[in-house]
Amino acid sequence: MKTQKHWYDFLWIVTPIYLGLGVFRILFAWIGMLFFCLPLLISIFGGGKLYCNRYCDRGQFFSLLGGKLGLSRNKPTPRWMRSKVFRYGFLIFFFVMFFQMLWVTWLVGSGARDLREFVTLLWTFRVPWDWAYQGSVTPWVAQYAFGFYSIMLTSTVIGLVVMLLFKPRSWCVFCPMGTMTQLICRVKAGTPPCQSSCSGDPSSCAQCKGGAPHA
Q1: CA nearest 154: which of 129, 121, 126?
Q2: For the chain, domain boundaries
């Protein structure tokens, strides 16, 4: 018997569309702020990990590629990748990179630095991306778009790599947004962070109000 499809089962298409739009016009990268704000707002206002379990386009995208299309080796996610040390460490590293991006944006906005029209892949490799900017907005707005797109592209690449090597949604194990929403729902419940690393997938932690990912 086929499972009835819902509109949110097709949200996987958002990921390739978003990345594709950023190739042609970098200012579309600002749309990605929704992917940052929605999970946190849903958790804060009582939705727990509903975003991760049902509405996350990236998680669905990895499930499609790794599961339905069979591109994943489907090997268990390594224990070290599921550990609290790695997940929280990656969250801290992510915030350091994010605030560095904000610092560069502020420098461009203040006139202390020129606009840098490139995308930084894996926080290391500078890829020219000048064709995607037509000089139609204030420089700091464009700089933020370049920086934010770099983060989104980098995290997608990392997610694809771990998808190929391990289970399709291995990225969800240490996704910064998933870690933050887990912390929010634990704080709201008045209990300490899950000690079992949520059996390898924070989004499936029953203690975090959400059950298994809908993917």
Answers
A1: 121
A2: 7-208
